[in-house]
Every structure is written in structure tokens, then in C-alpha cells.
Amino acid sequence: MSAATTNGGASPATLARADLYRTMRTIRRFEEQIVILVNSNEIAGVTHEYIGQEAVATGVCAALRDDDVITSTHRGHGHVIAKGADVARMMAELLGRTTGLNRARGGSMHIADVSLGIYGANGIVAAGAPIAAGAAWAGVQAGSDRVAVCFFGDGAVNQGVLHETMNMAGIWRLPVLFVCENNGYAVSFAQEDATAGSLVERAAAYGMPSVAVDGMDVEAVATAAAEAVSHARAGGGPSFLECRTYRFVGHHTAEATMGLGYRSDEEIAGWRERDPLLVLGARMEAGEIEAIDASVESSLESALAFARESPRPEVSTARDHVYASGPVPREGVAV
Ligand SMILES: Cc1ncc(C[n+]2csc(CCOP(=O)(O)OP(=O)(O)O)c2C)c(N)n1
Ligand SMILES: [Mg+2]
């Protein structure tokens, strides 16, 4: 079973805390497992973990239907899980197996599942914005009331493409929800040293409803997202949501070896007291939490076993599944 909390557009009041907790716990434990697998070289390269920010993806995706679209970032595993992707096939993708969501061609930063409206993680900061606007426009053209959500970090807010997209979405009243995950840093660059003025006021200048919310409280995020999604579905156009959050871990798995030292232990400990799992857990029964934790552990164990048992692609197939209709040879260039 997937960990999806997409709920067909149910109001936050009807959302079960157990579902929200299960999704956040799945993301947390998935990411903790990925760190181990990267450090033991079972996963190649580095990955960017979502640990600490689980309430944002979970709360926003709880307001979405299966046919709604999301675009994600380099820190995308949490978004993909919250939108309902199969964690076993995600694990297989990261381990480079043929059973992976993208047959091992995508990996961590290009993971996608178009059938669930997951239009891809994206290694280029802010590049998901025009893709989300395009998906929203396509939905309008098709007569659908589907909505597109664009997740991006505080480091994306000074990229021109984001502003061009917000302007176009405003002019055309596109059903897009711009979700800025303000975790305080772009790699080691503090948000307040990088960005002039207020994020919420910037977005409001494009004529869209724009609010900041506690990004460590999944129910607060879900409530704000549900309002923005209904506004978009009803033809009201785009909205902007700044979720104030924090990553408990480094920018990526290799940061520990880089000695960047841009934030203090006290700062991290202070945010850990507002761990989104603890914030929601305090509103739940202990027995309920333990049962969910055990079931998440078991599904992740199965996911890892599935990935490990799956074959790696043959080198001779490296060019398969990369182009929609096979590589188009250019004159004079061997393929
Ligand atoms: C256009 C572009 N510029 C620079 C980079 C290098 N880079 C990768 S992640 C990152 C920081 C992004 O910060 P933020 O948007 O706040 O996301 P976070 O890592 O905090 O989740 C940068 C500068 C990139 N991938 N793309
Ligand atoms: Mg950031």
C-alpha cells in the first residue's frame, strides 16, 4: 500500500491524523534509510534529504487529488512519497534497478511518476515553476479543474524564471499553488542575507493570495493548502504559501565531510524541539503512534528487500527509455 495522503480533496477537518502521521513517518524513515545506503555506497552519489520538512509535503499533498500535479526539487523524495508514489519502486530507483519508478534512468533528482501527477524532481533550482504553470494551463485547456503545485526552496526566490512564472500565472489566473519551503538556507547561505524584503509581500505583488504558515505543523499546512487549492479549483487563480521550516540534516549527504559550520548546534536543537512528528504526535494516542511506526518499518523493510532483489539494467540498454521515441540521429553524429 502506498503512503499517500492525497484524499480526493477532503477538508482538513476530515483528515485523519493517523494518515498524516503515517506519511510523515514514512518520509522520515525512508530518508534515514537512504542516508545509510548512500554512506555505504549502495546508492551512488549524494542525495538531499527532506528530514525535518515532512509536514510541508504531507500537508500540501493532503489537499490534492490524484489527478492534481506537483513539480518538485532536488530535495524531492518527500514530495514524491506524499503524492502517493510506491516506496518500493522509489527505493529501486535510488538503488539503480530496472524496477525503479524510472527504470533507474532518473535517480534521486529526476524521480517522477506521471501517472500520479508527479512531474518530476528537478536538479535545477526553480525549474519546476514553469513546468507547473504549463501543467495548470494544459488542465484548463482540457476543461479539467485540476490544480498544479510547485514546490521550491527559499534559494529559488531570486531566480528570474520563478518571477516570470508567477507573473504569467497571475495574468492568466492559472490554477497553481506556489509553495516556498523556507528552511532558512540555500546550501550554507542564510535566507535573510540572500533575499531583500518579505517573500509573502513579493508574491502578493503579483496579485495572488499569499500567506506564511508554520511549516512544522502539518495540520496548519494542510488547512492553508486546502484553502489555496479550493480557490484555484474554483477559477480564482494562483496562490503563494510560505512554509517556515527547517532541515535537521546537511544540505546533502556529503555535507558532514565538508566542514561548512554555517549553523550552530543550538539552532538545530531548537528546531528539533519542533519536529513535525512530535508536533502532530502530541495530538495523538501513544498506542496509535507505535502501531503506525511498526507498520511503516515493515513496509520499508519490504521496499528495500524488493529493491535489492531487483536486477540492475544491462549496460547495453543505457539509451533505452531516455527519449520518447528513441534518439533522433543528427547528421554526422554517431548515436
Ligand atoms: C539554477 C541553479 N543554481 C544553482 C544550483 C546549485 N544548487 C543546488 S541546491 C542549491 C540550494 C537551493 O536552496 P533552496 O532553494 O533553499 O533549497 P533547499 O536546498 O534549502 O531545500 C543550489 C544553489 C542549481 N542546482 N541550480
Ligand atoms: Mg532552503
Structural features, described:
By secondary structure, this protein is α/β, with parallel strands linked by helices. It has a single domain, classed as 3-Layer(aba) Sandwich (Rossmann fold), CATH 3.40.50. It has helices spanning 17-39, 54-61, 77-82, 87-94, 128-141, 160-172, 191-194, 199-204, 218-233, 265-272, 276-281, 286-309, and strands spanning 69-71, 148-153, 176-182, 185-186, 189-190, 210-214, 239-244. The protein has a five-stranded parallel sheet, sandwiched between helices. A two-stranded antiparallel sheet has the order 4-5. It starts with 16 loop residues before the first helix and ends in a 26-residue tail after the last helix. Bound molecules: thiamine diphosphate and magnesium ion. Residues 153-155, 183, 185-186 line the site of magnesium ion (MG).
Oligomer: single chain
Span between termini = 41 Å
Give the helices and strands as they follow along the chain. HHEHHHEHEEEHHEHEHHH
How many helices? The count is 12
Q: Helical content, roughly?
A: 40-55%
Distinct small molecules bound, one entry per kind: thiamine diphosphate, magnesium ion
**Overall form:** globular
- The total beta strand count reads 7
Structural class, from helix and strand content? alpha/beta
Spans with pLDDT under 50 lasting ≥5 residues?
1-5, 7-14
Identify the CATH homologous superfamily.
Answer: Thiamin diphosphate (ThDP)-binding fold, Pyr/PP domains
